[in-house]
Amino acid sequence: MTFAPVLSPEVSAAQKAGSAIVALESTIITHGMPYPQNLQTARRVESELRSAGATPATIAVIDGNLHAGLTDEQLQSLAKARDVAKLSSADLAACMAQGRTGATTVAATMIAAHLAGIAVFATGGIGGVHKGAEHSFDISADLRELSQTPVTVVAAGAKAILDVPKTLEVLETLGVPVIAYRQQSFPAFWSATSDLIAPLRMDNAADIAAAHKMRARLGLPGGQLVANPIPTNAEIPQSVMSPVIAQATAEATAQGISGKAVTPFLLQRIFELTEGRSLDANIELVLNNARLAAAIARELI
Ligand code: PSU
Ligand code: MN
């Protein structure tokens, strides 16, 4: 018998009715955005999904229980907490076994979504190969999880804080389909386009859902990465972001930031250096990803 996460009443009802469900991660709440914007965004993303005809299932570990679907009280306490663990693939079981609380990254959220029978997951950006990985070996477990857990992840590409060409190479090596939505170019998170061509392009949710189903029929492990560009009215041009990213990266190196702390440090510094502009863009792209994820989940019913 496989393990079953604790479902919220809303997620449980959707599952019984066989209606569309979309998973959401919680590290973006605890480590990706400052309070109170993190809580406001979490609530807005959930309501965006509901208006688009899908039930939100935010994933987190609370007092050792793996939840799919949180109450507003649970969302609030995660958003305000300061010392919540960041759980990737390697950390999930230990956190649960010890009865602790933790927020799930893309990798751990994929594991939980799959255990809950949820095939689609919306987030901001995935983790990937960090700049300087040839020295640090810092490659997010998100990439390996995409290669082995059958969940379609909708993200706005990979953050430009990463080495995006190397990230795409590793995804190719791992056999993960990378699908740009309605454009050729691989989106660069805060910016809609980059000078990298995505390996695949699809123009509607039905095609993405069909590709997801075909992988299952072929017995292929792993999911798909859907790279959905930020709406152009909300984007920040790469020319503005590049120097900011360079400065934040240099500071992280100078301060010896490593391991799990790297991504949260860079996001926080970029937020400060852009005077909040990066956060506004981040919020808009997550909402946009929720809308596309809902459409894909509806096609999969
Ligand atoms: N992208 C965001 N905000 C985030 C993250 C990614 O826009 O908070 C988080 C996700 O949870 C992702 C994690 O899975 O950062 C990657 O962390 P690491 O590089 O340590 O694997
Ligand atoms: Mn890392």
Describe the structure.
- This protein has 13 helices and 11 strands.
- The longest helix has 24 residues, at about 275-300.
- The mean pLDDT is about 95.
- Helix 3 packs antiparallel against helix 4, helix 6 (about 105-115) runs parallel beside helix 8 and helix 11 crosses helix 12 (about 260-275).
- Helix 5 (about 90-95) links the parallel strand 5 and strand 6.
- It is about 50% helix and about 15% strand.
- It has 2 domains: about 1-120, Indigoidine synthase fold (3-Layer(aba) Sandwich), CATH 3.40.1790.10; about 125-300, Indigoidine synthase domain (Indigoidine synthase fold, 3-Layer(aba) Sandwich), CATH 3.40.1790.
- With about 300 residues, the protein is α/β, with parallel strands linked by helices.
- Pseudouridine-5'-monophosphate (PSU) binds near residues 28, 32, 263 and 282.
